Amino acid sequence: MSETPPNTLQHRFDGPEDAPVLILGPSLGATWHMWDRQTAELSARHRVLRFDLPGHGGAPAHAVSSVAGLTGRLLATLDALGVQRFGYAGAGIGAAVGADLALRAPQRLAALALVGASPRFGTADEYRQRGVVVRAHGMDPMARTAPEQWFTPAFAAAQPAIADWAVQMVRTTDPGCYIAACEALAAFDVRADLPRVGVPTLVLVGSDDRVAGPAAARTLVAGIPDARLAVVPGAAHLAPVEQPAAVTDLLAGHFAASWQDTLTALAAPAPPPAAVPPAHVPTPAAPPAAHRADPYGPGLRLRREVLGDAHVDAALDGADDLTRDFQELVTRYAWGEVWSRDGLDRRTRSSVALTALTAGGHLDELAVHTRAALRNGLTPTEIREILLQAAVYCGVPAANAAFRVAARVIRQETTLGD
C-alpha cells in the first residue's frame, strides 16, 4: 500500500516487479477491492496496480471535480513510481479515466478495457442531483440503493454478504469527494472524441447494466476504431464482482493479445523519411485585429450547469419570434457576462439571487434559483439562513412566500428519484 501525497492516488501493487504494469480503476462509490477476484490471475503475468478514488476506501479526502483532474492525479502517481507504459482497465468513472488517458496520453497506454462504460453517463442533471441529495442527507441514500444499481436482483438476493459489503463501502465514502466525482461525471462527454482513441480497446458490459448498459457500450464500439465488444450475461454494473471468472478471462485474453500486437508494432522498422522539397517561406502576415469573443457559448454552458439541461431546454425550445431575442439576451448577458465573472463564486451568487428574488416577490424565478442554489453547493440549512436574513431586510410577508417555495423545491430535489 501507498502513503498518499495530495496530488496522487492511494494505490497498491500485486504481482512481479519486472512484469508489465496493468492498472485497474474503480467505479464511483467502490474501492480497489471490487477487483479482488481478478487480481490473483492477472497478477501472475502483470504487475497489477489498483487505486482508490479520493475519499474512497480510506483514501485522503482531496476532492477532484473533473475526470481530467483524476487522470492527472493518476499520471502523477505513475510518474512518482517510474511507470511510463501500462495497460489500463477501468469501470464506471474508472472507465472515464481510461478514455481520458487514451486521449491525453496515448503514447503511454499499451491497451485499454472499458467496463460498464459510456461516452456520457446519463445526464448532467442526474449526477448533480445526487450531489444535492448527499449534501442534504449524507451518503446513506446512495448506500442503500447501491446493490440495486450494481447487481442483478437475483445476485443481490443470493449474496447478502456482498450486497451488505456494497452498502458499507458507499456509506463510508467521503461525501465531499463523492459529490466532486458526481460533478466530474456530470461534465464528462467524449462522444465527439471517440475516433481519436487509437489504442487496442475492449468494451465490456454486463447484459443487465442499468447505469451504462449495452446500448452505451455499442456507442463506444461504433466510435472507437477497431474496438471489440464483450457482453457478460447475468451481470449488472459491477460485472467484475458479479461474474468474476468471465470478466477475468476476457481481460486476460485482451491484454495478452493487445500487448503482443503493440510490441510487434514497436519492433517494426520505421519507414525512411520522405524527401521534403524546399519550401517558400512566406512573409509573416500581420496579426489579426483583436476582437472580443461572443459570450453566448460560454453563457449557455454555464446556464446549463447552474439551472440544469431540462430547464434550459424548455426555455429555449419554447422560444418563439417574440421571446427568442430575450432568451439570447439572458444567455449572453446574465450568464455569459455576469454569472461568469471571477469576482464571486457560484454559492455567493446564488445567495444574492435568492435574496433579490425574495425582495422582488419573483416566486417562479425563486423556485428555479433554489434548485440552482442546491446544485451550486448551498445546503437546505444555508438556504434557511439566507431567507431568515431576507425576512429582516425584505419583509416578513416576502420571506413567508419564499419559505413556501423553497420548502417545496428542497423536498423535491433532496428526495432520491423524484
TrEMBL record:
Keyword Protease in record: no
Keyword annotations from UniProtKB, A to Z: Hydrolase
Region annotation (Disordered) ranges: 270-297
E.C. code: 3.1.1.24
EC class of the enzyme, as a word: hydrolase
Coiled coil stretches, renumbered: none
Annotated ranges, domain AB hydrolase-1: 26-249
GO molecular function, one term: 3-oxoadipate enol-lactonase activity
Domain Carboxymuconolactone decarboxylase-like stretches: 325-407
Domain of life: Bacteria
A Pfam match: Abhydrolase_6
Pro residues bias spans: 270-287
Name by which UniProt lists this protein: 3-oxoadipate enol-lactonase 2
UniProt source species: Streptomyces fradiae ATCC 10745 = DSM 40063
